[in-house]
Amino acid sequence: MIRVGYGQDAHKFLKSPSAKKCIIGGLVFDDVEGLDADSDGDIVYHAICNAITSITHVPILGDVAIKMCKEENITDSFQYLKKALATLGEWKIVFVALAIEAKRPKFQKRALELRQSVAGALGIDVDLVGITFTSGQELTHFGQGLGVECRAVVTFIKSIHV
Ligand SMILES: [Zn+2]
């Protein structure tokens, strides 16, 4: 049995200078401000969490992560992702396709590093993670550099017991 999960997430950059680092796909990007979120605002991990929720119906970002953040002060989105993965049961990830829209930071030169980080977080081979980037010609707030957006399509497989 196969399911295709779909998730999206976006955050704007903090306006004022702060000590908060910009973390996307588990990597730190030093050339931009941190993201405006109670958590680290990792759009890649959040989009993947939402793609997982789209097949499990367990609200991770909308419920579990909020509690982890508010009650335990956990802001590392990798911890939310681990909670999401724990809800998969017998579903296995076959492939992850990510599309990021942003004017900044510059992603392309770190594409392989980003794929490796996401693959490591999910416990899958790097060949099973694909990422594309677009600047979007300044048509959206992401393309204008005000924030970043990630869309994730995740394919899952589960063997049917007969
Ligand atoms: Zn988010």
Outline the structure in words.
The protein is of the alpha+beta class. It has one domain (2-157): 60s Ribosomal Protein L30, Chain: A, CATH 3.30.1330. Helices cover 30% and strands 27% of the residues. The chain has four helices and six strands; from the N terminus they run βββαααβαββ. It has helices at 43-56, 60-72, 77-86, 111-122, and strands at residues 2-12, 22-24, 27-29, 92-101, 129-134, 147-157. The strands form two sheets. Strands 1-6-4-5 form a four-stranded mixed β-sheet. Strand 2 (22-24) and strand 3 (27-29) form a beta hairpin. Helix 1 (43-56) packs parallel to helix 3 (77-86) and helix 2 (60-72) crosses helix 3. The relative contact order is 0.25. The model has no long low-confidence stretch (mean pLDDT 96). The chain binds zinc ion. The site of zinc ion (ZN) has 6 residues, from strand 1 and helix 1. Zinc ion binds at residues 9, 11, 37, 41, 43, 46.
CATH H-level superfamily title:
2-C-methyl-D-erythritol 2,4-cyclodiphosphate synthase
Uncertain spans: none
For the largest beta sheet, what order do the strands appear in spatially? 1-6-4-5
CATH architecture: 2-Layer Sandwich
CA-atom Rg in angstroms: 15 Å
Main structural class: alpha+beta
User: How many E strands?
Assistant: 6
Helix content: 25-40%
Proportion in β-strands: 25-35%
Q: Briefly, what CATH class?
A: Alpha Beta
Helix and strand succession? EEEHHHEHEE
How many structural domains can be distinguished in the coordinates? 1
List keywords for this structure.
single chain, 162 residues, alpha+beta, 60s Ribosomal Protein L30, Chain: A, two-stranded antiparallel sheet, 6 strands, 30% helix, binds zinc ion
